[in-house]
Amino acid sequence: MNTKLTLSLRKDIIERAKAYAKANNVSLSFLIENYLSKLVYEEENEVQESASIVDELSGILSLDNDFDHKAAFSKYLEEKHK
User: Fold this and answer.
1) Distance between CA 21 and CA 31 in Å, rounded?
2) What is the C-alpha separation between 57 and 41, in angstroms, rounded?
3) Domain spans of the chain?
4) pTM of the predicted protein model
């Protein structure tokens, strides 16, 4: 189902976008819809990709209960910056 959307954009951008749409034989609505669709798709896939990597790595490392991660990180930084 299509729904109308009113946008407020700079006049020069609208004119250039209309010229681009005409040159490519598509409507301005088509261009905007595809652009927004691409943005949403990329964002959704980026979040899912990040989440799956975290899920894969979760639990693969076991540390002692008394492990001091702050001290370990400090030691790492000292070694790195020698």
Assistant:
1) 7
2) 24
3) 9-58
4) 0.50
